[in-house]
Amino acid sequence: MISNLEKFFTGCLHLSSPWEVTNVKMDEGQTRVDIRVRNNGKFEFFCPECGGRCQGYDKKEREWQHSDLFDMECHIHCAVDRMKCRECGKVTMIDVPWAEKGSGFTLLFEAKGIELMREMPVKAAGSFLKTEPHRLWRVLDRFVERRMKHQNLAGLT
Q1: Which runs of consecutive H residues, i.e. helices, occur in the chain?
Q2: pLDDT tier at 8 (50, 70, 90 boundaries)?
Q3: Closest CA relative to residue 69, chosen from 30, 23, 105
Q4: Which of 4, 15, 65, 55 is nearest to 38 (CA)?
């Protein structure tokens, strides 16, 4: 049974079906909050390569660093479905709505990191966000790559 606390966090994370928060746990030292999310499995999988129907065959546990919650480090945990395409045979993980594929951070955390890196050195942003600077450099690289993809530099000399 999902309590009001889990419903509250489901809303705070802007999750909708099939995603929901099932558990929120604070460590004894009250320095970290861990949020467990699951999907109820009521959706179809489609291959990102060929668009064919896929079948989920197992789950892989993942963790993402989220923005701090009342100065406590916050992490989201989820067993994410892996699927195998019936058409092309490709194995892939489904996308989660709170993070980019392959990232160890939530979208909100990455957005906050980008804003901080605009105003201060990456090392200082990493210290503020309680993460290693090399991880933030990867966030910045992906951000620049996404922005440059839409730039027409044909006339640039």
Answers
A1: 4-12, 107-119, 122-129, 133-149
A2: very high
A3: 30
A4: 15
**Total H helices, total E strands in the chain:** 4, 6
CB 54 within 8 A of CB 45: yes
CA distances 102 to 33, 36, 153, Å, are: 22, 19, 28
pTM for the complete prediction? 0.84
The pair of structure tokens assigned to 47 is: 């291959």
Residue recorded with tokens 């499995």: 41
Digit-coded pLDDT (tens) for 41-53: 766 778 878 888 8
Instruction: Delimit the domains of the chain by residue range.
Output: 1-96, 99-157
Whether the Cβ atoms of residue 15 and residue 21 lie closer than 8 Å to each other: yes
What are residue 56's DSSP bridge partners? 83
Burial label for 4, CB within 10 Å (0-12, 13-18, 19+), is: exposed
**Residue 120 Cα to chain centre, angstroms:** 24
